[in-house]
Amino acid sequence: MEEQLSKGRPAYSLLDITKYYLKLGTWGFGGPVALVGYMHRDLVEQKGWLTEEEYKEGLTLAQLAPGPLAAQLSIYIGFIHHRLLGATLTGFAFVIPSFIMVVLLGMAYRLYSGLVWIHNVFYGVGAAVTGIIVISAYKLTIKSVGKFSFQSLKVNWILWIFYFISAAVTVLTRQEQVLLFISAGLIYMVIKAKPGWLKKPVSLSLLLVTGLGFWNYSKSTLITIAIFFVKAGTFVFGSGLAIVPFLHAGVVEQYKWLSETQFIDAVAIAMITPGPVVITVSFIGYFVAGFPGALVAALATFLPCFFFTVILTPHFKKIVKNKSIKAFVEGITASVIGALAGSVIVIASRSITDIPTALIALISILTLIYIKKVQEPVIILGAAILGLVIRSIY
After folding, report:
1. How far is CA 212 from the centre of its chain?
2. Which of 121, 140, 163, 319 is 20 to 30 A from 12 in CA distance terms?
3. How confident is the model over 183-215, as pLDDT tens digits?
4. How do strand 237-238 and strand 67-68 relate by DSSP bridges?
5. Residues with Cβ < 8 Å from 310, sequence gap 6 or more?
6. Is 241 a domain residue?
């Protein structure tokens, strides 16, 4: 195997890697961190298809570039030995199983959402999802910004300022502030690693990155969905749950496509299905514009991550050493995670409506902290049962 790799020939065929990601997308529960762990265990330790160095480079790229972590890594792994076709097939194979499941659940949700027992189930599920997002926001914070300690506040005080400002703005405006994120990245880049072109007094050229209802859609709505989800997919760094503040502000506050309850249910449905959590966009797209809406939302969200990976991978060894780019990403990441923390407050204020929901959220948080082997789908299932029992009593 080592001889094959040294000569540039992969130890696996295009069919092999595509089949692997089809299976992972079908059975891979646990969210982005778990999925990334499965890839290392399977592809590096057990199969020996990747070297440790290749895997680490892919993981670093997935963390630095925008896009959901697990999907980004899968596209990178497909690309390194099988180029554009490999990236395309692994990306689709990884996402398609969960996309199909979410669309089917969306159909069922639209069909049965008027029934009392469905409302009782999601009464508990909404509270559990809030608890899960709290833990996710905390983990992302300590990983990307720093621990909640005096030393961290002292060393990374600029990032903490971005974090708290973004959280406060999200709570107050209940909208995603893309310009705030970009500004944080630019400011941190100038402070920490001012790029050479800013030091030269020359004109700059700027790159601007800027029944069941199955067929119920309009072209104008699809265009709006595409634009919104492309923007959302462009500013997801690290975990798929980082997209929550974007989605909440857009689909609930701005466009009013979903109610607060429906939005929480959408996140819950994404968490109980395998594959990337960010596939929740398919449920939202389906709810707004049927199957075409689900398809457009998914493609719009994942295409930025696909193009970033395909474009950056051949030049990644140079890019990863660029201090200005790393500083820009660090600034944006701190601001985005602050927005996630702020969105937790907004969501909790509407999903935690009484003592039982508060207890369910607390139990979910404590379970994730102290019982490491319990995964999110199990917690959500337990919360659904609790919701049925509680609402039948009261």
Report:
1. 27
2. 319
3. 888 888 888 776 665 555 444 343 333 344 555
4. parallel
5. 75, 79, 84, 87
6. yes
